[in-house]
Each structure stands twice: as structure tokens, then as C-alpha cells.
Specification:
six-stranded antiparallel beta sheet, 12 strands, extended, 3 domains, alpha+beta, Alpha-Beta Plaits, Trigger_fac_C, single chain, Trigger factor, domain 2, 483 residues, four-stranded antiparallel beta sheet, Chitinase A, domain 3
């Protein structure tokens, strides 16, 4: 086999492949066996008819088709490996020459990772917000904890914001009832914003048994974007009574003996959370600074695929009804053109980020070990509310294990970049990046030993009968930018 690689653009190549028929004997043998199983020829058992008999019965063309369809993907991959081509996405094949018993020639156009020149990363400097913690925030956290232990008590007064009410709802559009927008006995906290626009204003001040009407724009269902006349009846009104914030409550709600100890713990937790937020801000700002300095050519097919996936995800909740989605968009003050532009901008940044971080990972020889991959899988499984085993099985079926591996590697690459930059807060104080991202791993050889086993260990975990423990946000999860 002969192959050449023709550079069409910084992000696309054409691979030309020439395969002499001398190399195709194993492919023809498999094609004859496969076709012989499908064709019944008198005097021969299924699969036993010789090649010359098969050709005399069905012709040479079906055999050639079978061989060509098998050979092209295999020889393409062989050419990619031999040419060290870093392909992205699926190729577009074209058979350019087929001379039976002589030669098969074909071409494959495919997007490739562009060559990216990295700047000096050490001179990047970003500023993040100060970590500020007020006693009001601690009090708010304490109130949220008290609310979990609160009790609901009926009141004999008009409804107020923060009350819990039981509601009956009915809606009409142009005088016709909307079944999907009608319900009874619905529990709702006034002011939570969990129902349609306008309902809070309608029921605040209403008494038990009173019915109010208001107009709102529907954002889901077949009447999306249309004005609906909504009737709401308040069946009952209850207010939440919170337990006293004292030592007795601290013992009930936590492992602490006093309310002061509980407050200290809440204060410490809030501080850690704000530190994590500071780390996320540093990560995002360093990434933005890096993207501004680096020219990353965009592979068009990869970009269009990313845009298509984002549109699919947005329209999926509307049963892929694009008109219903656009109506919902307009009902919320948006428009389709702005949304299209936003989708493209986000997709461009996502693709540029992935290509850039892949280059950084190669430059820094970033490896991923089995523990890091497993930790990401456990975290993702918890996000989607499934077991790690089920998550791995789904990833295997959809061919996403490689993508998970790549995301972890990119996260580690970005974390390594952040560690090498200067990050200060608004007051000019240097941020301890090791505290946020952990120390830089020095033993790359040890990482490399684990990396080869990582994917195998992940795939095997789908068959292992293990229980996953709890996990928090890992370094690579904190470092991986949102897509």
C-alpha cells in the first residue's frame, strides 16, 4: 500500500491511498465466505459454494463492493497511523480508481488537529475577587439549615411571600382550556419562582378559598409563546416556623454541642467554598488570557458538529420541534438570530479550548492514571444520578470513554498552566495556587505507567460488582472549563 498526505488547510488534509489487489486476497476470501452464507446455490451447502461458482451466479460486482467497503476504512486507518496524522471527526471518502484485479485507489478528506504555537505561559497574570465572608452569609446558611427542621402551621390571614399554599390551577388560551396547564392540590412556596410568571403577584394578599385570575405567557407545550388566562384558587395557607438557633438546635442538626461551634463550622465551610470559587475564577481567567494569546485555527467540520450538538441539546426538551423552541425563546425575551450567534460563539470557544489544551497536554506530557479516570467517572455518575457501573456501560455503548479520558487530561493540562501563572486577588495579594489545585506532580514516569492501564481499568469496572463511595470536585473537574 502507498499513501500520501496532502495539506488542504491548517485544519484539513486529503489522504490518498493506493492498494494493489495483491494485498486484498484475505479480504476477497472473507467476502466470498460472507456472500456464500447469504446466497443459496443448488448442490452446495450454505457457505460452501466456491468463488468461481458464486461469481458465475451473482457476478463480480457484489464481491467487489463487499471488499471495497471493508478495505477502505482499514487502509485509511493504516495510512493515518503510518503518516502520524492527528485526525478529528469522520473522513469523507471517495474512490478515485478501481481497476479489477489491478489496483484500488481512494482519497479521504478529514479534519486534523492544527499546529499550535504556545507562548510563554509564565508571564500570564490575572486578578480574581477577594475572598470576603460576612456574618450575614453565615446567618443565611444557618437559616437554611433551620428551614430543614422547620414546621408548617396553618394561618388565618391573607397569603404573604414565603408562605406555603395549596393551589388549584386552570388555564385557557383563546377561550379553550389547556389541559397540561391545569392541576389541583399543588403545593407552592410563594416567591420561589417555580411556577409561571405573574402567579406570585396574583396570590399575595389572597385569602383561603379565594380565586384570582391573571394573564401569563406559556413557555412549554403546544401553546408555547401564547398568552393564557390563568385561574388560581388558594386552598390553604401555611407559614414555616423555624426552630430557635440555640445549643439544643445545634445538637439536633449537627454533631456539635453548641450553636457557636455550629456557626464556626458553617463559617469554615463557606470559606472553603469561596476559595473554590476563587480557583474557578482563576482557571477561567487564565484560560481566557491564553486563548487571547494563541491562534487556534478552527476545523470547520468539527465546529459544525459542535454547533449541531448544542442545537440538538437545546431543542430536545421540545420534542425537537424547532418552532416550539423558538416560541419559548421569544416568550423569554430572546430571539432566534441572537441564539444562533450565541451558540456559534460558544461552540467556537469550546473547540478552540479543546484543541489548545490538547496541545498543552502534549507539550507538558500530561498523563492520566486509573485513579483520576475512576474519580471523574464517579463524579459524573453522581451528577446524572446513576451508578458508576451504569455510567461506564452507557459511555462504552456511546463510544464516549475516550472523550472522558480526554477531558480529564485537558483539565490536568489547564491546572498545570494555572499553577505556572501569577494570580492575585483584588487587594494585590498573591493566591496560593497549590492550596487551590494541589502540588504539581513531578513523577511523570509513574504517571505514564498508570496511563496505559487507565482505559482498560475503566472498561473493566463495568463488569466489577463494586460500590462507589462519595467524592467531591477533583482537581481536573475544577480545572476543566465548562462547555
Amino acid at each position: 500500500m502507498k499513501s500520501t498526505v496532502e495539506q488542504l488547510s491548517p485544519t484539513r488534509v486529503k489522504i490518498n491511498v493506493e492498494v494493489p489487489f495483491d494485498e486484498l486476497k484475505p479480504n476477497f476470501d472473507r467476502a466470498y465466505r460472507k456472500i456464500a452464507q447469504q446466497v443459496r446455490i443448488p448442490g452446495f451447502r450454505p457457505g460452501k459454494a466456491p468463488a468461481r461458482v458464486l461469481e458465475s451466479r451473482i457476478g463480480r460486482a457484489p464481491v467487489l463492493d463487499e471488499v471495497v467497503n471493508e478495505v477502505i476504512p482499514a487502509k485509511y486507518m493504516e495510512a493515518v497511523r503510518s503518516g502520524d496524522v492527528r485526525t478529528l471527526g469522520q473522513p469523507d471518502f471517495e474512490v478515485t480508481k478501481l481497476e479489477d484485479r489491478e489496483v484500488l485507489e481512494f482519497s479521504a478528506e478529514v479534519d486534523v488537529r492544527p499546529e499550535i504555537t504556545l507562548p510563554d505561559l509564565a508571564d500570564i497574570e490575572v486578578s480574581v475577587d477577594d475572598v470576603e465572608l460576612s456574618e450575614d452569609e453565615v446567618a443565611e446558611q444557618l437559616d437554611e439549615l433551620r428551614a430543614r427542621f422547620g414546621t408548617l402551621t396553618g394561618v388565618d390571614r391573607p397569603a404573604e411571600t414565603g408562605d406555603f399554599v395549596s393551589l388549584d390551577l386552570a388555564a385557557t388560551v383563546d377561550g379553550e382550556e389547556v389541559p397540561d396547564a391545569s392541576t389541583s392540590g399543588l403545593s407552592y412556596e410563594i416567591g420561589s419562582g417555580q411556577l409561571v410568571d405573574g402567579i406570585d403577584e396574583a396570590i399575595v394578599g389572597a385569602t383561603e378559598g379565594e380565586t384570582k385570575t391573571f394573564t401569563t405567557k406559556l413557555v412549554a407545550g403546544e401553546h408555547t409563546g401564547k398568552d393564557a388566562e390563568v385561574s388560581v384558587t388558594v386552598n390553604s395557607i401555611k407559614q414555616r416556623e423555624l426552630p430557635e438557633a440555640d445549643d439544643e438546635f445545634a445538637q439536633l442538626a449537627s454533631e456539635f454541642d453548641t450553636i457557636d461551634e455550629l456557626k464556626d463550622d458553617l463559617r469554615e465551610r463557606l470559606g472553603r467554598m469561596k476559595k473554590m470559587q476563587q480557583g474557578v475564577e482563576a482557571r477561567d481567567k487564565v484560560l481566557d488570557a491564553l486563548l487571547e494569546r494563541v491562534d487556534v485555527p478552527l476545523p470547520e467540520k468539527v465546529l459544525e458538529s459542535e454547533i449541531s450538538n448544542r442545537k440538538h441539546d437545546a431543542i430536545h426538551p421540545f420534542d425537537h420541534d424547532e418552532d416550539a423552541f423558538k416560541a419559548s425563546l421569544e416568550a423569554q425575551g430572546g430571539n432566534a438570530e441572537e441564539w444562533e450567534n450565541e451558540i456559534r460563539t460558544e461552540a467556537e470557544k469550546s473547540v478552540r479550548t479543546q484543541l489548545l489544551l490538547d496541545t498543552v497536554a502534549d507539550d507538558k506530557n500530561v498523563q492520566v492514571n486509573d485513579a483520576e479516570l475512576t474519580e471523574r467517572i464517579i463524579y459524573q455518575a453522581q451528577r446524572f444520578g446513576v451508578s458508576p457501573d451504569e455510567y461506564v456501560q452507557r459511555a462504552q455503548q456511546s463510544g464516549q470513554l475516550g472523550a472522558i479520558f480526554a477531558d480529564v487530561r485537558r483539565g490536568k493540562a489547564l491546572a498545570s498552566v494555572v499553577r505556572g501563572t501569577t494570580v492575585v486577588d483584588s487587594s494585590g495579594n498573591a493566591i496560593d495556587l497549590e492550596e487551590l489545585f494541589g502540588p504539581e506532580e513531578a513523577d511523570a514516569d509513574a504517571q505514564a505507567d498508570d496511563a496505559a492501564e487507565a482505559v482498560e481499568a475503566t472498561e473493566q469496572s463495568a463488569d466489577d460488582d463494586t460500590q462507589a463511595g462519595e467524592t467531591g470536585v477533583t482537581e481536573d473537574e475544577a480545572a476543566t472549563p465548562n462547555k
